[in-house]
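Input for the complex:
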Amino acid sequence: MSDTTSSSSRIGRIGGLLMLALAIAYGIGGSQIEYAFASDPLGPRVVPMLLAIILAVLCLFYLKNPGTAEAFPTGQLLVKIVAVPLLLLASALLLEPAGFAASIFLLTFSVGWIFGAPLRLALIGGVGQAALWWFVFSYLLDVYLPTGQLFG
Amino acid sequence: MNLDYLWNGFTVALTMQNLLIGLAGCFIGTLVGALPAIGPINGIALLIPIAYTMGLPAESTMILLAAVYCGAEYGGRISSILLNVPGDAGAVMTALDGNPMARQGRAGEALMLSGLSSFVGGVFGAVGLALFAPLLAGLAIGFGPAEYFVLMVFAFATLGSMVGSQPVKTLIGCTLGLMLATVGLDATSGAYRFTFNEPELGDGIEFVVLVIGLFSVSEALLILEHQASGVTVIRELGRMTARLDDIRKSVGATLRGSVIGFIVGVLPGTGASVSSAVSYTTEKRISDTEGTFGKGDVRGLTAPEAANNATACGAFVPMLTLGVPGSGTTAVMLGALMLYNIQPGPMLITERPEVVGGLVASLFIGNVLLLLLNLPLVNIFARVLTVPNWLLVPGILVLSVVGVYSTHASVFSILLMLGIGIIGWLLRKAGFDMAPIILGFVLGHVMEVNLRNALAISGGDISILFQSKISIILWILAGAMAVMPFIAGWRRTKVVKTATS
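Predicted:
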């Protein structure tokens, strides 16, 4: 028990330090915003710099007591957790070249499989969802979706 | 009191198109509420781009989103009772007495009773909203930029004191949201801020991209991590009518829940999860003389259900009158309003009476529709709970991708959504709430503009922020709210103990 709490508060600390780094980078970035004129006394730099200071102070409080964080996934679960965003990335990049139907099939089939569907059901689910959503968006709601070069 | 806006609102809400939209919203909302995988914010976030690309007018979109919001508060009880897994954040307390009732074979009764108390809470909230909104809008008409800025400081102070157990995390969330809002073109100076020379960031981060990333994408990852094993749906519903005895017994609890729910809803930034917890613990203190709470007491079931529905309506009060959202979900709706180039604030009720009136009127109609949907059709919604995650989660992801893509037909938006989703997932694992980020983001732009306008008026003299009576009162209230968590710190641990025991 004490082992998991110490590791989870360590995760919280790392997160806090990352946010502190963000605050500093954001503040420096804010102080270097270029502008020709400003019609108000503050200008575009002051609010970002104030926010950077506020975040930095809050991060110090947070680092003092990061509270409880959930443990990180390991093993097979970690692979799955990493796979889902990668699949989203792949289908986003494929959306325009391969078209909506193909990229949505890839997404629904593979994510369905990762969520524990047997391969056959995942395939059926993927084809079904690709068809269903194409019908809903293209015909019922008239939303523009790319057809892609794959199927003309 | 002038209620003309409301009567005109009924003529807006009762057109065939808006009635159908409201009905669809109620149905979708109940589904969204019932499914533990999606809450009202996700549901609304996914619907905004669809409504927008369909070309719905602002009032119809608001009616749709409000119906989804209220419907979700009704639907949340279904999975709380049948699965012992709350369907949304406002239904956590409903499970404490609802699920024991279901395990005693009284699931049908629990669903009926909680449906009725949801209705009472919802109507109470709608009445309160209708009466309160013009009053508050009238008060706020004297607000200048300085008062506005202080009002938003007050909103963040309330948020910090109410949401979650860790005020620091809530405030960090708000600050992150405010920081995200600074991205893009600064209108007063023409400077590009934090765009990294990426032309797609010139207009700032798209609201829909942020909300869908933070809620839907990160939710999918959390569901994957917590894939519930061995949760069983209770299928024996038992008799499907509420006993007259139980109704009589729960009248007091329902009314108290409605009042608490409405008040908590009106406070900026606090949503249904707070109000249902407060009403449950209050009811337990008042009524639990025989130790029956937590074992299937109808009063423990009806109080939080009435509260979360009253909160949903109450949360519209500050949103429509001050432009400060009363909950995470209304923050998202405020963002939707801004997509239509409608500037929220006290002038909204006079400038766009069809939007405000139509929304308020639709809440009355929506609650009747929801009661009709939720009593006889509860079986259908209960069956939805058996949809497996391997169908549901890919479906949510498809809606996310299409929603983000459809507004600007840009793949960059999807990638940004994905990045935000991963960061959201990490933050949620560290115990951060996503609603403050949304609130900060929605208010960020208005807050900065008002601060800079105020200082432009005073020529850079900061004392303008402390000059008017209204500002001073708001500063005092904000200060009181900010120290409250420290005073209440020792009490909270006690309350949590009694709530879970």
